[in-house]
TrEMBL record:
Keywords: Coiled coil. This is OPA3-like protein. GO terms for cellular component: mitochondrion. Belongs to the OPA3 family. Pfam families: OPA3 (PF07047). The keyword Coiled coil applies. The keyword Coiled coil applies. GO terms for biological process: regulation of lipid metabolic process.
Amino acid sequence: MAAFPAFKLGVLLFKQLSKPLAKVIVTQAKQHPFFRTYFIIPPAQLYHWAEVKGKMYLMNLGKPSKVAKLNEQMAIELGANLMGEVLIFSIAGGLLLFEYNRQSLKEAKKEEVRQAQVEKFTNDLNALNEASQQYEKQIEYLKVIVKEIAAKTDHKVDLDKLKPGGAMNNKNNVNQTDDNSKIQNQSIVHRAINYFEKTVKGTNKVS
């Protein structure tokens, strides 16, 4: 079950509370002489002037020589409405910006995790490649040793048996079959060592 989206619920709740909160702030501002004089009435008069100019221009009524100002009560009501809209828009814009930054950080963390996984995968491949090269060197070294020992014991060595999937199973001998099945599950180096122990050393004991 997915986690309850508490953050999104909080954002939605804050959006719903922004309107009554803005209304309370505007009401208090209307009653305060300083805010009423400098933050409510001037924006209302400016908005009224721009609205009258725009309407007359769109209706081709010419340019008014002077736009009559609103009375104080009308200016206060209009300015209060404007302030309320600005507050609501500012809150919504702030929440939107905050959510955008939060999502950006989330995506950045995902990308960081993905890059770490890619780097780990690359390192693992490099380690496997180095291990494979080491195995190849060990195999070549073992082949040289086996050849030298075989030359001293006059034993003919079939190097094909040292290869993966080589003919190391003797179907006529049950015990040998069990041993070979274990050897096949081992690495190439272990197969070479087992071959040397059972074949070359066994020949020396018989002789």
